[in-house]
Amino acid sequence: MCVLWGLVSAAARTRGIFQQKNIRASTKYTAREFLNITPMYIDLSLRRMLPMLVIGMVLLVSVAATGNIKERRYGSTPPVASIGFAWQELTLRVRYAIESSVWKTGQVASAAFSFFSGEEEATRGGAGGRTARAIPVLTYHRIVGNRNDLNNVTVRNFSDQMFALKRAGWETITLKEYMEFMDGTRELPERSFLITFDDGAKESFYPVDPLFDMLGYEGVIYVIASAMYTEKSTYYLSPNELRRMLDTGRWEIGSHSYDGHRPYPTDRNGNTGIFFADKLWLEEESRLETTEEFTARVSNDLAHARKVLEDEYGVIVNTFAFPLGNETGIEGAANFPPGAGITEDEAEKLYDLGFLQTDNNNFTFNYLEDRSFIARRIHVDHDWSGERLLRELEGGLPKELPFEDDFSRDRGWIPAWGTLDLGTNNFLLRADEGASSASAFLDGSALWADYSFDATLNWQDGSVFLLADLTNSKTYNACVFSPGTVRIQSTKNGETRVLAEIRDPKFAYGESARMGIRVHGAVIECLWDYSSVVEAYSRAMSAKGGIGIQVWNPELGSAAVQVWSILVRPFGS
Fold it and tell me: Helix, strand or coil for residue 419?
């Protein structure tokens, strides 16, 4: 009523209802006298009041509706932050609409030019009708405006990346499509990929959705189930926001734990560890939890996260992204090395698929032949341009035989350890200071079987390993070339067996040493100057895998080799 009376009074003043008939400004009235004269100067007729009543009602309804919309779209997000996200959404939609129009106009112009010039249009990097044999998965956290944030990709870089992939023919897929591909029940075109975002942050959705809408892309957000209920959070998406996100049809959700993403105490001194990898400290009992307690805690969190998300949104949540990427203890935890393995086992009981970030020990794509519960994700660094991301994905595509590399550009070599200087006709692999070896392998070569791998290199010290049948950086067959000696070795999960050896002084250092390895059927052969010099018959008949190069020297920090060129051919060609 006070608001309404204020509106009436203001309107009365502006319309001149208060008449100053012979009343001096200095005239003094008592309250009773003022009340007696008020009707003379205020028109309270229905004709005058009705417009003001209508305006007041409209304002009240508008305020209520605005609050309703805000609650439905942004949940408990503070009003100022809600306005900021709404403004960001709006401006990005306009910006991406303009960029998309320019891009599409360019496509039309290119197609027209090709038509009138009689040339067949070729989509740069397009799939060309081929079906996928492996799928990459990208992972991001937040997409931010701050260029000084070294942990997250900026809005500008993300836009550059997505447009670069779209132009090159890369298209997103859903979780269902990914899992059916890995089950062998669905074919997908080459250059299909999955995009994921961890934590369930607002900045994973608001800067991204307008771009996905324009490009026809889809994504998955992995939600920390307890965090979405954080009141007035400007960081985490609220249930209402997640619900609106799902309603777009462009997004899916997965589990990122219920409350396993923050540090927990692991001793009486307050040191902290990883929820899914370490035994936690029980303060009341002044001890570490037992293995049984660790397992029960992990299992309960995994199950509770899935139940909460499914109950809240009415969708099936059958995938899990391990918090902290590959830091769940895959290589061992601080106080409980078996912890990561137990977590993986418990997760596999409750989910169909678990995501870890890839590392330099594995191929970057996920292969149909693996059919593993664990899928690897490529973490996109904060400073990657669209060109850099495209180069990473193109380099990871399954490669065909024969394959030749003169190192004029990067064709997908991954340094497992040590330092690799690559490009401009240069491949220089060297050990880091304090290390005795270095190793690199070729991404996209995982499906090769029965082939010969020849290399020409500048070999001046130490030993050189040519790797074949490589499934990861710790599992492969190898020919090891040392001065006067060539050995055949088989390494599985880091454990090495010597299968055969030959000694001959002709195996010597040189600026253009020519060595090779040949694998076919049960046979592993080592070659010198293109001739077989030693064989072993211990290879699995169905073995397949990629190629790699290692260098070793007992003098720490000195191992190095320069490779001039390589050629890989199908066996018998």
Answer: strand
Rounded Cα distance between 246 and 286, Å, is 44
Q: Is the pTM of this model over 0.85?
A: no
Mapped onto helix, strand or coil, the DSSP state of residue 491 is strand
Tell me the percentage of the chain whose pLDDT exceeds 70.
Answer: 82
In this structure, what token pair is assigned to residue 552?
Answer: 């070793």
pLDDT digits (tens, 9 = 90+) for 225-281: 999 999 999 999 999 999 999 999 999 999 999 999 998 999 999 999 999 999 999
Q: What is the pLDDT of residue 483?
A: 98
Q: Please give the single-letter amino acid code of residue 228.
A: M
CA distances from 202 to 67, 145, 158, 235, 239 (A): 20, 13, 15, 6, 11
Task: Give Cα separations from 473 to 135, 360, 419, 549 (angstroms).
Answer: 20, 8, 15, 10
For domain 79-259+316-325+353-395, the question of CATH label 3.30.1600.10 is answered with: no
Q: What's the confidence (pLDDT) of residue 328?
A: 43
With vertex at residue 15, the alpha carbon angle to CA 10 and CA 16, rounded to the nearest 5 degrees, is: 100
Selection from 226, 206, 171 nearest residue 92 by Cα: 206
Where exactly are the structural domains of the chain? 2-72, 79-259+316-325+353-395, 400-570
Q: How far apart are CA 330 and CA 47, in angstroms?
A: 78
What is the DSSP code (8-state) at residue 352?
Answer: S
What's the rounded Cα separation, in Å, for the pair 468 and 395? 19
pLDDT of residue 494: 94
Q: How many whole angstroms separate alpha carbon 460 and alpha carbon 510?
A: 6
Q: What CATH code is assigned to 400-570?
A: 2.60.120.560
Q: Which residue has the higher pLDDT, 270 or 563?
A: 563
Q: Report whether 476 contacts 468 (CB < 8 A).
A: yes
Cβ(567)–Cβ(404) under 8 Å? yes
